[in-house]
Amino acid sequence: MNHPVPEPPAELVARLRAAFRAGTTKPVAWRTEQLRRLRTMLTEQGETFAAVLHADLGKSSTEAYSTEVDFVIREIDHTLEHLDTWLRPEPAPVPAFLGEASAWTQYDPLGVVLVIAPWNYPAQLLLAPMAGALAAGNAVVAKPSELAPATSAALARLLPQYLDTDAVAVVEGGVPVTTALLEQRFDHIFYTGNGTVGRIVMAAAARHLTPVTLELGGKSPAFVDRDTDPDAVAARLATGKFLNVGQTCVAPDYVLTDPETARTLEGALAKAVENMYGADASASPGYGRIVNERHFDRLVALLGSGRLVTGGAHDRETKYIAPTVLAEVSPDAPVMQEEIFGPILPIVEVAGLDEAIAFINGRDKPLALYAFTESDTTRERLAAETSSGGLGFGLPVAHLTIPDLPFGGVGESGMGSYHGPYSMATFSHRKAVLSKPLG
Ligand code: NAD
Asked: Which residues belong to any copy of the Aldehyde dehydrogenase domain (predicted)?
C-alpha cells in the first residue's frame, strides 16, 4: 500500500497498530526481511544518499558513505548476525521455596515506535534506530529532519519502496507535523536532537505514559595531559572536531589543558588543519558547509571568543566557516556557554588534572568525554571521578562505531541508549516468565 497523500496522524498510527496487533511484525523472518531490504536500499541507493547529503550539508561522498550509508549497513549486518542470540530467552535461577519451576526473561516487541531524527547525520540517525526497532519486531513511524530537506525527501520516497508499508511509514514535516504526531499514543518514542525539544517530546510522551529514549547533545570536553605528543593529539582532535564541520553530537567541543601544553598544541592544531584541508579549507572537497543561515550566524558570533590560532574566515553566501582554533578562551566566553555544534575549537586552560575534573563536574554531564594521556592513573581517575555518556581515551568520536557498546547520554546529554544489543533492549519489553508444572 502506498500513501501519496499524507495520512492524518491518528489514522496512520491506528493502521500501523492494527498491523502490529495482527502479528505482522513479530516473526523473526519478517524482521530479518525488513533489515535485508533496508540494506538493499542502502547498497542500491548509495549514490542517491551521497547526492542528497551533499545537497543538504556539503558532505563529501567519502564522508557520506563512511558516516551514514556504510555505518548503517554495518549496524544491520551486526544485527542480522546476532539477532537469534539476542532473542534467546535468558534463564533465571528459581528460589528453592518455589519447588520445581523454571523462570526466564524474553524480549517482547513494544508496538508502534516513533523515531524523530535530526539534520546533522540525517540518514544515519533515522535509519540506525529504525533498524533496531524493526529487529525488535515493532512497527515504525519515521520522522526525518525538515532541516535536511533533500535527505528527508529521499528517505520519504525510498523507504516505502523497500520496506513493508503496512508496518513502516515516513512522515515528513517540521514543528506542526511533529507536534501532531506527538499527540498520538506510541509505544516508544526515540528522539535525537536538542534538550529543549527533548523536554517537549518527553512531556508529550508522559500524557500516554510512553517511554522515551532521548539522544541529546552538550559540550563534550577533551582533556590533554602534559607530555603527550602534540602532533598525534592534534591530528586526532582535528579529525573528530572538523568531521561534518563540527556538526557532530560527539565532536570534541573544547580542549582543557595546562598553559604549557596549550602553547605547543596550538601550533600542532594549525598544522593538523592544514594537513587535512590545505591552506584554504573552502577549496577542499572533504570539507562541508553549515546547515543553514541561522546556525551560520550563531557560529560567526562565537568567533571572537578567544585569540585566533587558525581559521576565522567565513562566507554567508556559501555557509562556509573555516576550521577555527581559539586559544586562551575564558570559561565565561560566549563560545563556552552552549554546545558549539560547528567548526570552532576553543582551548581553555586549567592548572592540571584536578582542575580539569572539577571543571567537567561543575557543568552538565557531557555526551562524551575524551582524554589524551600516557598515564594509567589519569585514565583511571577520569573514568572513576566523572560521568558522561561515553568516554574515549586517545580517540574521539569512534566509540560509537563499536556496535556492542551502548550509545547514549546521561543527565542533560540524554537518557537510554542504542546500537546492537542495546537497540534490542531499548525497543523491547523484557518480560519476566515463571513456569511451574501443575500437580
Ligand atoms: P533538529 O532541529 O533537526 O530537530 C530534531 C527533530 O526535532 C526534527 O525532526 C524536528 O522536526 C523536531 N522538532 C524541532 N522542533 C520541535 C518542536 N518544537 N516540537 C516537536 N518537534 C520538534 O535537530 P537539532 O536539535 O538542531 O540537532 C542538533 C542537536 O542534536 C545537538 O544538540 C546535537 O548534539 C544533538 N544530537 C545528538 C545526537 C545523539 O545521538 N545524542 C546525535 C545528533 C545530534
From this structure: 13-433
Measured in degrees and rounded to the nearest 5, phi and psi for residue 263 equal -60, -45
Measured distance CA(222)–CA(216) in Å, rounded: 18
- For residue 337, which amino acid is it? Q
- SS3 of residue 135 by DSSP: helix
Contact 16, 167 (CB under 8 A): yes
pLDDT tens figures, 257-293: 999 999 999 999 999 999 999 999 999 999 999 999 9
Q: Considering only CA atoms, which of 300, 407, 310 is closest in space to residue 75?
A: 407
- Closest CA to ligand 1's atom 3: 118
Q: What is the pLDDT of residue 1?
A: 45
Q: Which atom of ligand 1 is nearest to the CA of 339?
A: 32
* CB-defined site of ligand 1, < 6 Å: 116-120, 125, 143, 145-147, 174-175, 178-179, 192-194, 197, 200, 215-217, 249, 339, 341, 367, 409, 414
pLDDT of the residue at 2: 47
Find the 197 Cα to ligand 1 centroid distance in Å. 7
Q: Which atom from ligand 1 is nearest to the alpha carbon of 218? A: 34
Of ligand 1's listed atoms, the one at least distance from the Cα of 147 is 3
Q: 403: CA distance to ligand 1 center in Å?
A: 23
8 Å CB contact between 208 and 186? yes
Residues marked as catalytic: 215, 249
